[in-house]
Design goal:
Helix 1 crosses helix 8. The two termini are about 15 Å apart. The radius of gyration is 17 Å and the shape is globular. The protein has 9 helices and 9 strands. Strand 5 and strand 6 form a beta hairpin. By secondary structure, the chain is of the alpha/beta class. The protein has a 5-stranded parallel β-sheet, with helices on both faces. The chain has a 4-stranded mixed β-sheet with strand order 4-3-6-5, sandwiched between helices.
Length: about 200
């Protein structure tokens, strides 16, 4: 089964879309991921395992991580054996992860699909960010209330390394975005894998 990486700027809907797929389209599951940052109120259960820097170093030294990245002073990593376990059992592993790391993970892991969720315009994106107090406060604290993440994401897309692009105009519901993504994933899965897996029937 493929491993789906979901990237895009902060607040564009990555986690909400994944949550919807896991609940409503059976067959999707998040692999184990680690982070050294504190938990956030909007996080869903199982999104991250929160560890110390020492614990993260130990996991990395033991070759238990597929990736290790640092963003805004916090470290993030994916558990290698968790992804293998899910895909070997016929599930689609799906996880939000920084777009800039997608290509590195694709080089080291087979059957990876890179997905970008992007806003339809910078104006709508900033309006949405400013309407979300939880995101606005977090970005303002780090002096990131700007278009840098959006520009970085677009630059990566322009390099041609992303397999699927989903546009969020912030008018459609998360249900609609998740349905669009699910159909795109199904279209991208090779026929021989589709014969083994139908998430709506499991």
């Amino acid at each position: 089964m493929p491993f789906i990486l979901i990237g895009g700027p902060t607040g564009v809907g990555k986690s909400s879309v994944i949550d919807h797929l896991i609940v409503n389209e059976r067959g999707y599951s998040r692999p184990t991921a680690y982070t050294t940052r504190p938990s956030r109120p909007e996080e869903t259960a199982g999104q991250f395992i929160h560890v110390s820097n020492t614990e993260m170093d130990s996991l990395n030294t033991s070759s238990k991580l597929l990736s290790l990245d640092e963003v805004h002073g916090n470290r993030y990593a994916l558990a290698k054996n968790s992804i293998e376990s899910l895909t070997n059992s016929g599930l689609i592993a799906i996880k939000e992860f920084y777009l800039r790391d997608h290509m590195t993970i694709k080089r080291s892991t087979r059957d990876v699909l890179s997905v970008a969720i992007m806003p339809s315009s910078s104006h709508k994106y900033l309006h949405h960010i400013e309407s979300r107090e939880d995101i606005r406060n977090r970005l303002a604290t780090k002096n990131l209330l700007e278009l840098s993440e959006l520009s970085e994401s677009q630059s990566i897309i322009d390099q041609g390394s992303v397999d699927i692009i989903i546009i969020n105009d912030f008018k459609d519901s998360i249900d609609s975005l998740a349905t669009t993504l699910h159909k795109a994933i199904q279209a991208a899965i090779p026929k021989n894998l589709k014969n083994q897996f139908n998430p709506t029937n499991q």
